[in-house]
Every structure is written in structure tokens, then in C-alpha cells.
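Supplementary material to the annual report.
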Amino acid sequence: MKNNEVKNIWNTNAEFWDKRMGEGNEFHKTLIEPVQLRLLNIKAGDKILDIGCGNGQFARKMAGLGAEVTATDFAEKFIRIAKAKGPKSIKYRVVDATKTADLKKLSGITYDSIVCTMAIMDMEKIAPLIEYLPKLLKKDGKFIFSICHPCFNSGENILAHERDDLEGEVKDKYYIKTRNYTVEKSYLGIGMMGQPRSQYYFHRTVSTILRSFFKNGFVLDAYEEPSFADIEDSLKIFNNVYKNIPPALICRLKIK
Ligand SMILES: C[S@@+](CC[C@H](N)C(=O)[O-])C[C@H]1O[C@@H](n2cnc3c(N)ncnc32)[C@H](O)[C@@H]1O
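Predicted assembly:
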């Protein structure tokens, strides 16, 4: 059981993460936010639950669009940081999404939408959350999640840059070398360069994740794979590699 360690790491990294993430870093603003907002299609007064809200940046975005937001995270430090930023209309709760007893604290209200932004691959267990979600959703409610794309983030991927200058022309090519996609495991990695402690990721295949939703009565009704599509070569190898290769995937699920 790594969960306590996973949580300690997020509490340790929270301040650093908040400074870097702010109200949405480049990755979030370019790849995640536009798709999630389109799939959410927020109407004023929508009740939305945010699972694994971090510093609350996406919760604030949704509240700014008129949603009534409840935002949760298992890292107390993140919840303190998020709460301090306001607005007071957002309700913040410390909830560990791997624990049914914690999720039960959220019952009593049902939500138009539940969102989990870039957090499922950080959770040691996902079955308790997926099993509990139907109890928290209104009829026709939707669950939207984004994750690091498991095909291109298995923990054994190597980002590669190749340069040739054959016949007077310099050509840069970027690749991902991938292996062991189907081997599910946890591993330590770096989410943001310079973060105080490396964090745990829990690699699961796309089919494992979706099967868990299907088993609990969900159907997939939207699937997006955003990438840095039209950028010029960047100084960051990450952006160059993930040009036309999706570093994240985003799903919308509904109860059948
Ligand atoms: C990559 S951050 C994303 C934060 C935020 N959703 C965003 O996009 O800015 C992952 C978040 O998931 C949270 N998290 C990881 N495991 C969790 C769990 N078991 N229960 C609740 N939150 C969890 C972490 O504390 C962290 O805030």
C-alpha cells in the first residue's frame, strides 16, 4: 500500500506545483482545458464535482463560468492553498478518491457533471471511485476525465531527438520509443521539472481503465487525444515530441 506515501509526496510538492500551475500552465491551457470545457458544456447553475482538484485552478475556471463547484483532493495542503484563493462559492473538501468511506462523505447531493483532471494515473486504486460515481451523478450526468495518455506514458518511454544534416539540410526528428505498454505497474516520475520530490504514477492500459467504467454501467460518449498540433519547433523536447502525438487523452462517460 503506497497510498500514504503518494499523499505525502503531493503534500510536499503542493506549493511548488501551485506556483508552476497557477491558473493553468501551457499544457493545461493548450491541451486539456479547451477540450474539457467543450465536453462539459457548462450552464449557469450546473452542479459540478472536481476530484483531485490540486490548487483548484480548473475549479475556479468552472465557477467563473457559473457552475456551483465542489472541489476535492486528498492532499490537505492543496485544499488549504485552493481555499485561500477563493471564491467562497467553491466548497472544498479533503477526500481520498481511493477510499469508499471518504467518497461517502460526498453523498446527499447529485451532480450534473463530475470532472477529474489529470489525476486518475496518480491514484493507486481507481475501482472505488468508479464504483461510487454512479451514486453521485444525476440521471444523464456526465463524468469527464483526462489522463497522461497511457500509450505514450508507460513509464518506460524514451523521448528522442534525432538530427541529421545530410546533403546540406539539417533535419530534426522527434520520437517516442515505447515498450511494455501492457505491463501495468507503478513507477516514480517527474510531473514538473524541479519539483521537490518525484511522484508515483500508476500505469494502466486504456482498456483496463475503460473496462472498469463499462463494468459499472458507463458508456463512453466522447474520446479526445489532444496534441501540440501546429506549433513551430519549441525549445522544449516535450512539446516537439508531443507534436501530433497525444500526451493526454480525455474521455466523457455517461450511465447507460
Ligand atoms: C497532476 S495533479 C492535477 C491537479 C488538478 N486536477 C489540475 O489539473 O490542476 C493530480 C492531483 O491528484 C491528486 N490525487 C492523487 N491521488 C488522489 C487520491 N487518491 N484522491 C484524491 N486526490 C488525489 C493529487 O493530490 C493532485 O492534486
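The pocket of S-adenosylmethionine is lined by residues 6, 10, 21, 52-54, 57-58, 73-75, 78, 96-98, 117-119, 122-123, 191 (CB under 6 Å).
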